[in-house]
Amino acid sequence: MVDSNFSRWLISAAFLVHGIGMLGAGLTLPMAIRKTDSGFGHSWFFERCGTQVEAVAGTILWGLAGIGFIGAAVGLFMSQNWWVLFAWVGAPATLLAVLLWFGAVPMGTYAGGVLAALTLGALIFRR
Asked: Residue 116's closest CA among 126, 96, 103?
């Protein structure tokens, strides 16, 4: 049997690493979409709206995902109930970001999408 403290630490660590990655992507997205060699391409949805709109929308969405998962990590690690609120912000924002930039992000981003889907599943079926 896995110790519940170890599980809490492990999940918190995964949330934190994912949150930092998403926040970093949000902060670098405006510069990354202007470079062809950045590994971060244009959103299939926002591409036709122009680079400025895509940069603003992406920064907000990826930033929300990052802040949500960082907040969830801290709250869960501290055994605070408010971690759930942050997870409800971070997980849908991650899924939406991955969906809107599908095919335009590095492969590791999809692992974050899986984490977000599992998080949403756990939140929905939480007792």
From this structure: 96
